[in-house]
Amino acid sequence: MSTLVIVYVLTALAAVVVVLTRKRLGKEEAVAGRFQVGRQLVNLHTAAGVLALVTWVVFLVADEGTTFGSATVGIAALAFWWVTVVAGLLILLRWLPSHGKHASEGALDSWSEGPGLSVLAHVGLLVGVCVFTWDYLNAYV
């Protein structure tokens, strides 16, 4: 399979992660897990994800000799992807077990029976961004 096809598929999957995270945690009552996720973290994940997606797609489809196909645009897109990944992994912290006298049980939601979907999405995003970075550094994209 072509490297570029893999990058396009991973780009589409990364977009799904950003959109579903926003949809799942964008409401005030999003309490799945053991900790409440701060609104700023979800906003950072969404904003960086949208900027990453737009910049990355523009970089992928632009001709190499143009401004949008330049190394600067590629590096900016990767930087946005890495911010998105870090924010996503921080969002996963809400599932960490809490111990102590006043610790509460984890809250479930209608999307899953635990952190499985979130772990799959955000670790998958980490792997995807590692592939993007590898392909960029090796001039495959």
| Total domain count | 1
Low-confidence stretches: none
Largest sheet: none
Q: Report Rg.
A: 17 Å
Give, in order, the helices and strands: HHHH
Distance separating the two termini: 14 Å
What quaternary form is this? Answer: single chain
The tally of strands reads 0
SSE map:
Blueprint: H1 3-25, H2 39-61, H3 71-92, H4 116-137
Plain-language structure description:
- The chain has one domain.
- The mean pLDDT is 83.
- Helix 1 (3-25) runs antiparallel to helix 2 (39-61), helix 2 packs antiparallel against helix 3 and helix 3 (71-92) packs antiparallel against helix 4.
- The chain starts with a helix and ends with a helix.
- The chain is elongated.
- The chain is built from four helices and no strands.
- By secondary structure, it is mainly α.
Structure in a nutshell:
The chain is mostly helical.
Features:
elongated; mainly alpha; 141 residues; single chain; 0% strand
